[in-house]
Amino acid sequence: MKDIEKIKMIYEGKAKKVWSTDNPDFVIMDYKDDATAFNGVKKGTIVGKGVVNNTMSDLMFTMLEKNGIKTHFVKKLSDRETLCRRVSIVPLEVIVRNITAGSMAKRLKIEEGIVLPRPVQELSWKDDEKGDPLINDYYALALELSTEKELAEIHGAAGEVNRLMKPFFDGLGITLVDFKLEFGKTADGVLLLADEISPDTCRFWDKETGKKLDKDRFRRDLGDVEDAYAEILSRVESGIEG
Ligand code: UDP
């Protein structure tokens, strides 16, 4: 493929910029060090986060692609930039949980750290102004956020991603607690896994020490944030090489 040129910034989110290119079917993701939590109320910087999240997402998407998951990933361009298929994002955040934590523990008034006998899938309406409210399949269909066929595909793919990622991280000495996925549709209607897979979007607990190696260190002011991001990336890199 000939080199693709960045044209203009078409979107700036909390953690990434998206650039159009000279090919309408492709965009460039550009990962920032900016960190936000609690729907943008807490703001900060995690030095090097953009590099970690870009590198890690590319490794994860490559692993998933090898195992039959269709993703938007095309090619890593630099430390912070990745070429991706252009998609329109389905306005749903799909959360998969293996262990209770975060908003689930809070909402249900149960402890964090309970191993669920089977994974849970949750949907949120991806809308910052509304605070990404929790919904379910009936809402997603009634609000026309997605079709029945897409939802079935999304739940199937999210379950499969969990079945692939859980043992992958377990082999690195890490418990995959929960994670968030986003899906998008190409111009010709193909559903692809999109966005990122990183310590910003997953909860990772060290199996031996229980240490959190993810964005909860930032959300909860636990310190050692940069080190934790570097640590998870280095384990993923060793897992992919090994
Ligand atoms: N998550 C995310 N973006 C969001 C909300 C959640 O990436 O806007 C991820 C979060 O990092 C965690 C999982 O989804 O790995 C479940 O998050 P939860 O619902 O517990 O929300 P939180 O406690 O982060 O408010």
Short description:
With 242 residues, the chain is of the alpha+beta class.
Description of the structure:
The protein is of the alpha+beta class and 242 residues long. It has two domains: 6-85, Phosphorylase Kinase, domain 1 (2-Layer Sandwich), CATH 3.30.200; 88-224, D-amino Acid Aminotransferase, Chain A, domain 1 (2-Layer Sandwich). 31% of the residues lie in helices and 33% in strands. It contains six helices and 14 strands. Strands 8, 9, 10, 11, 12, 13 and 14 form a seven-stranded antiparallel β-sheet that branches. Strands 1-2-3-7-6 form a five-stranded antiparallel β-sheet. A hairpin with a 4-residue loop joins strand 4 and strand 5. Helix 1 runs parallel beside helix 6 (225-241). The chain is globular, with a radius of gyration of 17 Å. The two termini are 29 Å apart. Residues 93, 95, 101-104, 132, 178-180, 200-203, 215 line the site of uridine-5'-diphosphate (UDP).
Order of helices and strands: EEEEEHEEEEHEEHHEEEHH
The count of DSSP E runs of length 2 or more, i.e. the number of strands, is 14
Proper CATH architecture of the largest domain: 2-Layer Sandwich
The overall number of domains is 2
